[in-house]
Design brief:
Blueprint (H helix, E strand, L loop, with lengths): L5 H4 L10 H4 L9 H4 L6 E5 L2 E4 L4 E4 L2 H4 L8 H13 L11 H10 L9 E5 L2 H17 L8 E5 L8 H6 L3 H4 L9 E4 L19 H13 L4 E6 L15 H11 L3 E6 L12 H4 L6 E4 L11 E5 L1 H5 L20 H16 L2 H16 L8 E7 L2 E6 L15 H11 L3 E2 L1 E3 L2 E4 L7 H23 L1
Parallel strand pairs: 3-13, 5-6, 5-7, 7-8, 8-9
Antiparallel strand pairs: 1-2, 2-3, 4-10, 9-10, 11-12, 12-15, 14-15
Length: 463
């Protein structure tokens, strides 16, 4: 870049992008900027499943940005759809009008949402989707003669977003404590986590207590007060934990008996990520409300949404203006986002990429088994290209690392800084979720780099 403007000339030197002088004005998500500025990574461009930083260093994107870039970088169909729509119309009022692309996209997307969930409110982010779902069920019951049904039951260790209602539904203390007091009307139950069962039981002798306790909580709270049960199909923020196959059918049956809506947060797991269009298809269970996001537009523009039944939608259609759904978002139904969503969905369907995601996921799981010889792989779990790996001190006894070792974090940082691979990590687990277009050869390379990172950190611990 060249410019006579002194305010732009500073960017001609790539090193300036990584300078604390400028980075101190930035705020990353959930990241201590003091630490980030010590070894910052400033991305500049992407192609396929790779990204390059401003220094020209090439990284393998093993987490699709954050479970988003399912088509990888540089998909020309999506880029051209966005360009064409920008030239035609970039925005329409979400209050007074709707636009042609949004109408087309809702009709098209409704052909792939779970059966019966064909009414769709388009939004721009995952937190907007989960927040909207909470408001949707509360207003629905208020307008159907059950105004006391307001309580939302969710799970500990689930993440639903950062807006006030979504954050209150979230069950992760570290995300919530700085912002208390939070919203009222939320309760939590224990999550399904068979490897570290909160009840010290063993599956299947446990009779899936983690699912059956929902009925007890509904009874304790009073069925006339409970509006919905809300959860991720697969628990992401604690390492892609997959519930036992009976879990979701039990939840569905319990909610049906007590007239409680099932809200599933598929912001990350949906749009093909788990090898089916929706993760709930894996569990053969239909929700009442589906929260979508991330992969809907594959990272090319912000796009999310909430799908629900026509029966619920009919409650909000009335001559009374006060009975309209009282929820609004400036970029909801944006024509550029809708155009991108159409192109992404066409790519997923016409190139059979959801099935490819399933097959590549199976191959990745097989290759990750090779890492068990390192002796610290406690569990490999997931669906499609959403894989979690539990790291333990002893793979035979499943003894965890001592608190403070933070082995998963160390492996993740090693992968990022030494192996040039971006993965998701936490103290006791790591996760990989590459784009659907990943090849088997690229998966082999990913596993090789990951294995080297684990080996390196084990060597450090032993010394």
């Amino acid at each position: 870049m060249s410019s006579t403007n002194p305010n732009l000339q500073i960017w001609e030197n790539p090193a300036n992008y990584s300078s604390p002088q400028y980075l101190k004005h930035m705020v990353l998500d959930f990241v201590q900027m003091h630490d980030f500025m010590q070894e910052p990574i400033v991305c500049d461009r992407g192609e396929g499943i790779y990204v390059w930083d401003v220094q020209g260093k090439k990284y393998l994107d093993g987490i699709s940005g954050v479970w988003v870039t399912s088509l990888g970088f540089g998909n020309q169909r999506v880029i051209e759809a966005i360009r064409a729509q920008l030239e035609r119309m970039c925005f329409s009022s979400p209050i007074l009008t709707i636009n042609t692309r949004a109408v087309e996209y809702v009709e098209m997307l409704g052909q792939y949402t779970p059966e019966g969930l064909t009414t769709i409110k388009l939004l721009s982010g995952g937190s907007e989707a989960t927040e909207t779902a909470i408001k949707l069920v509360r207003q629905y019951y208020a307008q159907t003669g059950k105004p006391n049904k307001k309580t939302i039951i969710s799970r500990y260790n689930n993440f639903h977003g950062v807006t006030l209602g979504a954050l209150t539904a979230t069950g992760i203390a570290s995300r919530k404590i700085p912002f208390e007091p939070l919203a009222g009307g939320f309760r939590h139950i224990a999550p399904p986590y068979c490897l570290r069962c909160p009840f010290n039981l063993k599956y299947p002798a446990c009779n899936v207590l983690c699912a059956r306790m929902l009925e007890k909580v509904i009874q304790y709270e009073g069925p006339e007060t409970v509006a919905a049960f809300m959860a991720e199909p697969i628990q992401l923020s604690t390492g892609n934990i997959v519930p036992p196959p009976e879990y979701w059918p039990i939840i569905r049956e319990t909610c049906d008996r007590y007239d409680v809506k099932v809200i599933v947060d598929e912001v990350a797991t949906g749009a093909g990520r788990c090898g089916k269009m929706w993760a709930m298809d894996v569990f053969n269970t239909k929700p009442d409300v589906l929260c979508m996001g991330k992969g809907l537009a594959a990272g090319y523009v912000p796009l999310s949404g909430v799908a629900f039944s026509d029966e619920m939608a009919d409650v909000f259609i009335s001559e009374d203006p006060e009975k309209a759904f009282m929820d609004g978002h400036t970029y909801g139904g944006n024509p550029v986002a809708a155009a991108a969503g159409i192109a992404v969905l066409q790519e997923l369907v016409e190139r059979n990429l959801v099935e490819q995601c399933r097959l590549r996921g199976e191959y990745l799981m097989q290759r990750l088994e090779d890492l068990r010889e390192l002796g610290v792989i406690g569990e490999i779990r997931g669906k499609g290209l959403m894989i979690g790996i539990e790291l333990v001190k002893d793979a035979q006894t499943l003894e965890p690392f001592k608190k403070g070792i933070n082995f998963g974090t160390r492996v993740g940082r090693n992968s990022l800084l030494k192996q040039n691979m971006i993965i998701r990590y936490a103290p006791n687990w790591i996760a990989v979720a590459p784009p659907f277009i990943v090849s088997e050869q690229e998966i082999d390379e990913m596993v090789l780099r990951l294995g080297q990172s684990i080996f390196d950190e084990l060597s450090v611990l032993k010394n």
